Every structure is written in structure tokens, then in C-alpha cells.
């Protein structure tokens, strides 16, 4: 794993990160180079700052499940195979077809290896709920 990967992913101290279907070595390596984050492979009811997933099954259900726990300014990174790898998996276009109608927008991609890359999705700014209460006006 590249040592600059946590910074490229936007990982900072104290973030709650949920890994889904990640290779065991990925979670172990990520924890070693970025120990200051709260990393989990089991999703609870607590809101999370970031989700990093290797997709499975129905993409629509996957995104809907993630949106239930994602903080308004959080990010969802979906890891998919590069075309040249010849590996099976969802395409970039299939991710867009499912994610965009849910109010998510893709805004960054990142090469993870010679065979995989990740696409970051975030809730559109105009759809984000205010994460802090409005100040009172007297």
C-alpha cells in the first residue's frame, strides 16, 4: 500500500471509517500507516465519516444502506477493477447509473493498484442536511 494513500483518501485523525468487503491485508495495512482513525468492518447505528467498499450484489441496495449511516459531509469510496485488468466487477458507468439518482455525485478517482481504482461519491451540497444548528437571531 502506498504511504500517501491515507492523505489521498482524505483520512484524518478521529474519522470514523467503515470498510466493506475489503481484503484483509488492506485493512491491516491501512491501520498500520494511519492508526489515528476509528476503523470498523462492522456497521452499527453510529454515523460514519467515510465508507470504503468493494461492491457486491445489488448496487442500489448497497448505496441506500450506506446513505443511512453516512454523515452529510461524508464520503463513499467504491473500489472497482480497472478495465485493463480483465477482472469482473461493476463498471464506472454502472456506479454512476445507480449513485446519481440517489443524490450522490462522483468528484474524485484514485488509482489504488495496477488492477483497481476507487471512485469517491458525496452527497450533493444542496442536499446535505445542516450538520450544526442554525444560530439564534435576537
Please characterize this protein's 3D structure.
The protein is an alpha/beta fold and 138 residues long. It has one domain (5-124): Vaccinia Virus protein VP39 (Rossmann fold, 3-Layer(aba) Sandwich). 25% of the residues lie in helices and 30% in strands. The chain has 4 helices and 6 strands. The chain has helices spanning 5-9, 24-33, 59-69, 92-99; strands at residues 16-20, 38-40, 48-53, 70-81, 104-111, 116-123. Strands 2-1-3-4-6-5 form a 6-stranded mixed sheet. It starts with a helix and ends in a 15-residue tail after the last strand.
CATH class: Alpha Beta
At CATH level 2, the architecture is 3-Layer(aba) Sandwich
Series of H and E elements: HEHEEHEHEE
Poorly predicted runs of 5 or more residues: 130-136
Shape, please? globular
User: Which radius of gyration do the C-alpha atoms yield?
Assistant: 16 Å
Total beta strands: 6
Number of H/I helices: 4
User: Which structural class matches the secondary elements?
Assistant: alpha/beta
For the largest beta-sheet, the strand count, sense and barrel status come to:
6 strands, mixed
CATH topology group: Rossmann fold
Terminal Cα span:
53 Å
Strand residues, percent:
25-35%
List the keywords.
138 residues; alpha/beta; Rossmann fold; 4 helices; 6 strands
Task: Write a concise synopsis of the structure shown.
With 138 residues, the protein is α/β, with parallel strands linked by helices. It is built from 4 helices and 6 strands, in the order H-E-H-E-E-H-E-H-E-E.
Would you spell out the secondary-structure blueprint of this structure?
Elements: H1 5-9, E1 16-20, H2 24-33, E2 38-40, E3 48-53, H3 59-69, E4 70-81, H4 92-99, E5 104-111, E6 116-123
Amino acid at each position: 500500500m502506498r504511504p500517501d494513500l491515507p492523505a489521498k483518501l482524505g483520512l484524518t485523525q478521529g474519522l470514523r471509517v467503515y470498510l466493506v468487503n475489503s481484503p484483509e491485508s488492506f485493512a491491516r495495512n491501512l491501520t498500520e500507516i494511519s492508526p489515528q482513525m476509528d476503523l470498523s468492518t462492522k456497521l452499527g447505528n453510529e454515523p460514519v465519516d467515510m465508507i470504503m467498499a468493494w461492491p457486491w450484489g445489488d448496487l442500489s441496495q448497497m448505496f441506500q444502506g450506506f446513505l443511512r449511516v453516512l454523515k452529510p459531509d461524508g464520503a463513499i469510496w467504491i473500489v472497482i477493477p480497472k478495465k485493463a485488468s480483465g477482472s469482473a466487477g461493476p463498471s464506472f458507468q454502472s456506479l454512476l447509473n445507480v449513485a446519481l439518482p440517489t443524490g450522490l455525485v462522483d468528484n474524485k478517482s484514485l488509482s489504488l493498484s495496477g488492477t483497481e481504482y476507487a471512485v469517491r461519491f458525496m452527497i450533493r451540497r444542496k442536499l446535505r442536511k445542516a450538520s450544526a444548528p442554525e444560530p439564534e437571531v435576537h
